[in-house]
């Protein structure tokens, strides 16, 4: 679709299914419990900036939007220690999961499944 003309784009959009619904269902859900203080303290340590790219959205948008990423997935290890957490912008957090990144603790670098590597630009606790 990158090189499509306007007519092709209009046909493409017209064929999309725009329907939706809301279903009510009752489920049992496993809930992970971990100290929010650990995450809040790490976010403050990095001034609500991404440890990879350094981005912070507070100046432009007036909100602190960074996320905590567990290097070893919390769902598998329940490891919520600071040495298992990095503070990332939403984009880098999503890339960690989608790109199946692993962390080389000696080099302080994330290695994506395709071989691309990103080094922490800020590291005060790992």
Automatic annotation (TrEMBL):
<dbReference type="Pfam" id="PF13391">
    <property type="entry name" value="HNH_2"/>
</dbReference>
<feature type="domain" description="HNH nuclease">
    <location>
        <begin position="38"/>
        <end position="94"/>
    </location>
</feature>
<dbReference type="InterPro" id="IPR003615">
    <property type="entry name" value="HNH_nuc"/>
</dbReference>
<protein>
    <recommendedName>
        <fullName>HNH nuclease domain-containing protein</fullName>
    </recommendedName>
</protein>
């Amino acid at each position: 679709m990158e090189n499509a003309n306007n007519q092709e784009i209009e046909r493409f959009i017209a064929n999309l299914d725009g329907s939706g619904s809301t279903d009510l269902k009752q489920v049992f859900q496993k809930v992970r419990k971990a100290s929010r203080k650990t995450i809040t303290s790490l976010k403050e340590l990095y001034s609500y900036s991404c440890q990879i790219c350094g981005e912070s959205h507070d100046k432009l948008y007036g909100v602190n939007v960074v996320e905590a990423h567990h290097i070893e997935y919390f769902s598998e290890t329940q490891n919520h220690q600071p040495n298992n957490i990095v503070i990332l912008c939403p984009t880098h957090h999503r890339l960690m999961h989608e790109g199946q990144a692993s962390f080389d603790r000696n080099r302080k670098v994330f290695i994506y499944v395709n071989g691309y590597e990103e080094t922490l630009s800020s590291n005060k606790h790992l």
